[in-house]
Write a structure and sequence with these properties.
By secondary structure, the protein is mostly beta strands. The protein contains 1 helix and 11 strands, in the order βββββββαββββ. The chain starts with a strand and ends with a strand. Bound molecules: 5-(trifluoromethyloxy)-1,3-dihydroindol-2-one.
Protein backbone atom coordinates (compact mmCIF):
# COMPACT_ATOMS: atom_id res chain seq x y z
CA UNK A 1 0.00 0.00 0.00
CA UNK A 2 1.61 3.29 -1.02
CA UNK A 3 2.16 6.31 1.20
CA UNK A 4 -0.19 9.29 0.69
CA UNK A 5 1.34 11.59 3.34
CA UNK A 6 4.22 11.30 5.73
CA UNK A 7 5.32 13.79 8.37
CA UNK A 8 6.88 14.17 11.79
CA UNK A 9 4.37 15.27 14.42
CA UNK A 10 4.23 15.43 18.16
CA UNK A 11 1.49 13.22 19.56
CA UNK A 12 -0.12 13.54 22.97
CA UNK A 13 -0.34 10.21 24.75
CA UNK A 14 -3.78 9.18 25.96
CA UNK A 15 -3.94 9.85 29.69
CA UNK A 16 -4.91 6.81 31.71
CA UNK A 17 -6.04 8.91 34.72
CA UNK A 18 -6.87 12.61 34.88
CA UNK A 19 -4.14 13.06 37.48
CA UNK A 20 -1.43 11.35 35.41
CA UNK A 21 0.85 13.82 33.62
CA UNK A 22 0.36 14.39 29.91
CA UNK A 23 3.25 13.33 27.74
CA UNK A 24 4.17 14.38 24.27
CA UNK A 25 6.35 12.39 21.90
CA UNK A 26 7.67 13.03 18.41
CA UNK A 27 6.72 10.31 15.96
CA UNK A 28 6.79 9.76 12.22
CA UNK A 29 3.21 9.60 10.92
CA UNK A 30 2.33 7.80 7.70
CA UNK A 31 -1.04 7.98 5.96
CA UNK A 32 -1.96 5.26 3.48
CA UNK A 33 -5.30 4.39 1.87
CA UNK A 34 -6.46 2.41 4.89
CA UNK A 35 -4.32 3.40 7.87
CA UNK A 36 -2.66 6.22 9.73
CA UNK A 37 0.37 4.68 11.41
CA UNK A 38 3.04 6.16 13.61
CA UNK A 39 6.61 5.12 14.13
CA UNK A 40 9.55 5.79 16.29
CA UNK A 41 12.20 7.27 14.04
CA UNK A 42 15.82 8.32 13.98
CA UNK A 43 16.06 12.10 13.34
CA UNK A 44 19.77 11.95 12.39
CA UNK A 45 19.35 9.19 9.80
CA UNK A 46 15.79 10.32 8.95
CA UNK A 47 14.93 6.63 9.15
CA UNK A 48 11.73 4.97 10.34
CA UNK A 49 12.24 2.68 13.31
CA UNK A 50 9.59 0.61 15.15
CA UNK A 51 5.89 0.83 14.38
CA UNK A 52 4.25 2.16 17.56
CA UNK A 53 0.62 1.97 16.51
CA UNK A 54 -2.03 2.85 13.97
CA UNK A 55 -5.68 3.69 13.47
CA UNK A 56 -7.63 2.25 10.56
CA UNK A 57 -9.02 5.04 8.42
CA UNK A 58 -12.48 3.42 8.36
CA UNK A 59 -12.60 3.68 12.17
CA UNK A 60 -12.14 7.47 12.14
CA UNK A 61 -15.40 9.30 12.97
CA UNK A 62 -14.19 12.89 12.74
CA UNK A 63 -11.07 14.96 12.07
CA UNK A 64 -10.86 18.58 13.18
CA UNK A 65 -8.52 21.31 14.32
CA UNK A 66 -8.22 21.87 18.03
CA UNK A 67 -8.18 25.33 19.59
CA UNK A 68 -5.08 26.02 21.65
CA UNK A 69 -4.86 28.06 24.84
CA UNK A 70 -2.79 31.24 25.14
CA UNK A 71 0.05 29.52 27.03
CA UNK A 72 0.64 26.90 24.31
CA UNK A 73 4.35 26.07 23.74
CA UNK A 74 5.72 27.05 20.31
CA UNK A 75 6.11 23.41 19.17
CA UNK A 76 2.39 22.65 19.78
CA UNK A 77 0.70 25.50 17.94
CA UNK A 78 -1.06 23.53 15.21
CA UNK A 79 -3.01 20.67 16.78
CA UNK A 80 -5.65 18.54 15.15
CA UNK A 81 -7.68 15.67 16.47
CA UNK A 82 -8.45 12.27 15.03
CA UNK A 83 -11.62 10.99 16.71
CA UNK A 84 -12.30 7.29 16.66
CA UNK A 85 -14.50 5.07 18.80
CA UNK A 86 -12.10 5.32 21.75
CA UNK A 87 -12.07 9.11 21.75
CA UNK A 88 -9.85 11.87 20.44
CA UNK A 89 -6.20 11.43 19.51
CA UNK A 90 -4.23 14.67 19.51
CA UNK A 91 -1.47 15.37 16.99
CA UNK A 92 0.55 18.57 16.60
CA UNK A 93 1.71 19.67 13.15
CA UNK A 94 4.64 22.01 12.60
CA UNK A 95 2.67 24.56 10.58
CA UNK A 96 -0.92 25.50 9.75
CA UNK A 97 -0.23 24.56 6.15
CA UNK A 98 0.88 21.03 7.06
CA UNK A 99 -2.13 20.72 9.36
CA UNK A 100 -4.51 21.89 6.61
CA UNK A 101 -3.09 19.32 4.19
CA UNK A 102 -3.47 16.40 6.62
CA UNK A 103 -6.91 17.45 7.82
CA UNK A 104 -8.06 17.83 4.20
CA UNK A 105 -6.78 14.37 3.24
CA UNK A 106 -8.25 12.72 6.33
CA UNK A 107 -11.62 14.50 5.95
CA UNK A 108 -11.88 13.16 2.41
CA UNK A 109 -11.46 9.65 3.75
CA UNK A 110 -13.78 10.11 6.74
CA UNK A 111 -16.65 11.31 4.54
CA UNK A 112 -16.85 7.77 3.12
CA UNK A 113 -16.90 6.17 6.58
CA UNK A 114 -20.07 4.51 7.87
CA UNK A 115 -19.75 5.99 11.37
CA UNK A 116 -19.27 9.76 11.28
CA UNK A 117 -19.62 12.34 14.00
CA UNK A 118 -21.26 15.70 13.44
CA UNK A 119 -20.69 16.99 16.98
CA UNK A 120 -17.26 17.26 18.51
CA UNK A 121 -15.28 19.20 21.12
CA UNK A 122 -13.16 21.95 19.55
CA UNK A 123 -10.83 22.18 22.56
CA UNK A 124 -8.72 19.61 24.42
CA UNK A 125 -9.85 17.11 26.98
CA UNK A 126 -7.36 18.02 29.69
CA UNK A 127 -7.16 17.53 33.47
CA UNK A 128 -10.50 15.77 33.55
CA UNK A 129 -12.63 18.20 31.61
CA UNK A 130 -13.37 19.56 28.17
CA UNK A 131 -11.71 22.96 27.89
CA UNK A 132 -14.46 24.13 25.51
CA UNK A 133 -17.61 23.34 27.51
CA UNK A 134 -16.18 22.37 30.96
CA UNK A 135 -18.10 19.09 30.95
CA UNK A 136 -16.27 16.57 33.12
CA UNK A 137 -17.42 13.46 31.29
CA UNK A 138 -15.06 12.47 28.47
CA UNK A 139 -17.91 10.82 26.57
CA UNK A 140 -20.03 13.99 26.84
CA UNK A 141 -21.72 14.82 23.55
CA UNK A 142 -19.64 17.21 21.47
CA UNK A 143 -20.50 20.85 22.13
CA UNK A 144 -19.82 22.02 18.54
CA UNK A 145 -21.51 21.00 15.27
CA UNK A 146 -19.09 20.17 12.44
CA UNK A 147 -19.44 22.83 9.71
CA UNK A 148 -18.67 21.98 6.08
O1 LIG B 1 -1.73 7.61 22.98
C1 LIG B 1 -1.83 7.94 21.80
C2 LIG B 1 -1.83 7.03 20.64
C3 LIG B 1 -1.92 7.99 19.53
C4 LIG B 1 -1.97 7.81 18.16
C5 LIG B 1 -2.05 8.92 17.34
O2 LIG B 1 -1.98 8.82 16.01
C6 LIG B 1 -2.87 8.04 15.24
F1 LIG B 1 -4.06 8.60 15.32
F2 LIG B 1 -2.91 6.79 15.71
F3 LIG B 1 -2.41 8.04 14.00
C7 LIG B 1 -2.14 10.18 17.84
C8 LIG B 1 -2.11 10.36 19.20
C9 LIG B 1 -2.00 9.26 20.04
N1 LIG B 1 -1.92 9.20 21.40
Amino acid sequence: MDVILEDVFIKRSQQKKKTSPLNYKERLFVLTQDRISYYDYDAEKGKRKGLKGYVEVEKIKCVANVFTEDNTPSDRLFPFQIIYDEGPLYVFAKSDQIRKHWVHELKNKVMCNKEQMQKFHPCFWEDGLWKCCFQEVKQAMGCRVLEN
